[in-house]
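Anyone able to model this chain together with 2-oxoglutaric acid?
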Amino acid sequence: MRDLTRYGIPAPMVMVCIPPALVLAALPGVYRERIRALQAPQRDGFGRFALKSDAWSGRGANGSGTAGGTEGGGMAEPGIILRGFRILPGHLDRAAQTALVEDLRAVLRVAPLFSPQTPYGRPMTVRMTSAGRYGWVSDRTGYRYAARHPDGMAWPAIPDAVLALWRALVSDARDPDCCLINYYGEGARMGLHQDRDEADFSWPVLSVSLGDEGLLRIGNRTRGGKTESIWLRSGDVVVMGGEARLTYHGVDRIRFASSTLLPQGGRINLTLRVVD
Ligand SMILES: O=C(O)CCC(=O)C(=O)O
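re: yes, here you go
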């Protein structure tokens, strides 16, 4: 049986044995969305799916020659599919998460977190920095990739452990150009948006969550319409590719201090992108 409490569904609701349709209808919306997310893999036959080969569509599985493909048969791992977002709960164990945080501290010593502004001059609540050939920046002149940190230094290299994740889950034929590092302190959030500053949308975006839980909201390929949400926890990895590559998404809130990974609390999210 799946551990539904892991998705924030209270234990008593899990234990009572009444027809699932009745339970679903009676639940508040946010619980309903989580249960639907859990059911999705069973509905579409992706209760288990092979990474690289079908973790996303568009590259790799059919021998496009530019992605990792299915060599080795792919690694099967339980996952959740929500509107095409492939979520791998707990992909990184605690030791891997801790090691990754250490790697990121080294990045931040060279390229500190900064507070971006929207093009409309409003400060974003998320602080950020990047590693790789490009970093993502935003200020009064717009959203864009830049070769340098706003303070003028080149971005540090993407840590090996992060590249290893990309190579294992997405492609070993081409590395990402940018590892955007978002830090969500208490009260930080990210509005619904599309990731569309990259040149080639056939490359997926790979996202890694560390630290406090964050409520990911997933919308549609155009603005508006119904959305669904799922709590992401430390160690969860998400692949946004294929049809989901241009889907609106955002983080409504975090549960500050819900994780012990970061001593000061907060949530780190990494997104790996091929830029040009
Ligand atoms: O924090 C997250 O889980 C999502 C981050 C995101 O959407 C982005 O950086 O574009």
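The chain has five helices and 15 strands.
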